[in-house]
Amino acid sequence: MKRVTGIGGIFFKCKDPAKMNAWYKKHLGFDTTEYGTSFLWQAPVGEKAMGMTHWCPFNEATTYFEPSAKEFMINYCVENLESLVVLLKEEGVVICDELETSEFGKFIHILDIEGNKLELWEPV
């Protein structure tokens, strides 16, 4: 079973997300909204036709990255998140929350061996 299939997003803390979005839009050409921006990419032959990596600044006061004390969180795309969670639990990986399903897909958060919070995402 495949586990991670790509990087789904890069999230980081900053003092002013709106100003950060505007800076990246002006100087680097990002097509930002209040939620950051998404980069589309072509998957290898035989894989899904298109993929996406999301970039998003968060307010420095966010608690979304907790229990990690880091200023960033990486979102990884996965296939069959429910089966992967079962395996990760068997392997002793720290699971931070319950599987969440939304219009964007399925999500869950885990910790790596240094306490970095990672978001696993199975896109719709």
What does this molecule look like?
The protein is of the alpha+beta class. It has a single domain, classed as 2,3-Dihydroxybiphenyl 1,2-Dioxygenase, domain 1 (Roll). Helix content is 18%, strand content 43%. It is built from 2 helices and 8 strands. The protein has helices at 17-28, 81-90; strands spanning 4-14, 37-42, 50-59, 72-78, 94-95, 100-102, 105-111, 117-123. Strands 1, 2, 3, 4, 5, 6, 7 and 8 form an 8-stranded mixed beta sheet that branches. A hairpin with a 2-residue loop joins strand 6 (100-102) and strand 7 (105-111). The mean pLDDT is 92.
Q: What is the number of helical segments per DSSP (H or I, 4+ residues)?
A: 2
Number of domains: 1
Instruction: Summarize model confidence as the mean pLDDT.
Output: 92
Principal-axes shape call: globular
Query: What's the alpha carbon Rg, rounded to whole Å?
Result: 15 Å
Low-confidence stretches: none
What percent of residues adopt helix (DSSP H or I)? 10-25%
Which fold name is given in CATH as the topology? 2,3-Dihydroxybiphenyl 1,2-Dioxygenase, domain 1
CATH superfamily: 2,3-Dihydroxybiphenyl 1,2-Dioxygenase, domain 1
A few lines on this structure:
By secondary structure, the chain is an alpha+beta fold.
Keywords:
eight-stranded mixed β-sheet; single chain; 124 residues; 2,3-Dihydroxybiphenyl 1,2-Dioxygenase, domain 1; 18% helix
Please give the structural blueprint.
Layout: E1 4-14, H1 17-28, E2 37-42, E3 50-59, E4 72-78, H2 81-90, E5 94-95, E6 100-102, E7 105-111, E8 117-123
Parallel strand pairs: 1-3, 4-8
Antiparallel strand pairs: 1-4, 2-3, 5-7, 6-7, 7-8
